[in-house]
Amino acid sequence: MKPLIKKILLFFFVYACFLLFTPVVTWITTDTPLLLLPRFYLMVLWAVPLIILFNIKNIYCKLIGFIWICWFMIGSINVIASYYYYGDFYLVNVEHAHLVYIAFTTTFFLAIFVFERLTHLTTRHVVTFTTALATQVMPKRDIHPGFGAFLIAFPFVWFLSLYYAVGYIPILQGTNIEKDMYKLDFGPLYGFVAINILSMLLIFDRFQSATSVKRYWYLILFVLVAFFSVSNGKRMTIMVFFLALICYLIKTRRDIIFNKFYITIGLTLAVVFYSGMMIIRKGSNIDNYKSTAVQLAIVGVEFRDFAFAINHFKPEQLHNYKWAESSLASGINSKVLKFMGIDKQQAISMSFSYASKSLFSGGFFGIRVGLIGELYFAYQFYGLIIIFIFGLLIGWIGAKIHKSNSQFSLLFLSTTYGLLLITLVSQTIDIIGTLTVLLYTWFIYLFIKALYPTKAAIRLIKEIGAH
């Protein structure tokens, strides 16, 4: 079958999924309130972003686009499931939330499309789904030995710092730790957890190329670092790693990433891990999660909260919410801000999650509504300007990944890719703060490289091994 015909058939299949969503739900659950269901005219409007998405060439950008549209479907299912499990508290009118999501998604896709056209990215220059299996690109292994040793050693130091600060391993408590884990002091190195992502990517890469004996050691090492990264009960680090790994494998191991078996296994593991982490950190009995409604309500919580917030609150109700100020402060060192007369914690408290605390009876933390929700509550539809700029950034990152032939740059670009992708569900302050840590890590690399040139570093490591 010709690629163009496949592309057209795939488009109509995806579009049909949108058009048939509400009829299928009403057929399965005849008593679902209409307020919870996507309006048909909005589902028809999905043709616009889908047409743009199917004309985006860069595979890395296109993948992000498909995740954005899948998130809409997953979130819409979560809204319905949450109503059946939690009751009338989640009886929300999703119409305006869906309109906002479609408008921002369309603008985001349009920005990527415009970037590709302005930079003359055509099928000849960009790896697409149809050409991905034709070539295999192995980047030049240019990781400095000293920096590689640093990446492997750091997670152990990070974990010891966390354990020393807390006195126990939160994820192993067997009780609900959700309230406590946002209050605990996890130690001085906690903010550098992004380095663990680079570490896991490097270990995974070495696992693939190692001999049979070393492969087992790298596998054990990988499991340990992964456990360290989720020991605080938070999923962001490991989620970013999964997304970064997908990007890394598209570039280096297309025989794996485009294999249907591996795709199925990967998606299954991702869903099981995401759901399992939520169950473990809630300390709940597994029997509580046997109903279909609660299982569907586990994934897509951020989209549900996005729809809930838009349905119940007006932007003017968030008196202390300042997206730009809090985002900028999260990326600047606290000492630098202090020198400027700014308290970093006070500046960060103007982010959405902090500002929305007062809107909820619990009061201990707000909710996460993702980048779209944060921009809408900050600037309403003027936020489309910022999402357009964000789309241009994604287009640029996708182009940089495609052109990269260095393992070192690919590690950083893949991690950045994962971080920017997770903005869909995460907080801007977390993303920008983590990107700053990547910048610090790059400075560490430059320092190690200057202190120990590559040949000298190899000789030093061999001498240490000899003793």
Summarize the model shown.
This protein is an all-alpha fold and 467 residues long. It is 68% helix and 0% strand.
Main attributes of the structure:
single chain, globular, 467 residues, mainly alpha
Per the principal axes of the C-alpha atoms, what is the gross shape? Answer: globular
Listing every helix as H and every strand as E from the N terminus to the C terminus, the arrangement reads: HHHHHHHHHHHHHHHHHHHHHHH
Please work out how many helical segments DSSP would assign: 23
Radius of gyration: 23 Å
What do the pLDDT scores average to? 83
How would you name the oligomeric state of the polypeptide chains in this document?
single chain
- The first-to-last residue Cα distance is 61 Å
Care to describe what's here?
It contains 23 helices and no strands. With 467 residues, it is mostly helical. The relative contact order is 0.13. The mean pLDDT is 83. It has helices at 3-19, 21-28, 40-45, 47-53, 59-86, 95-118, 145-166, 194-209, 212-230, 236-252, 254-257, 260-282, 292-298, 301-312, 323-330, 334-339, 344-348, 352-355, 370-379, 383-403, 407-421, 428-451, 454-466. Helices cover 68% and strands 0% of the residues. Helix 8 runs parallel beside helix 10 and helix 15 runs parallel beside helix 22 (428-451).
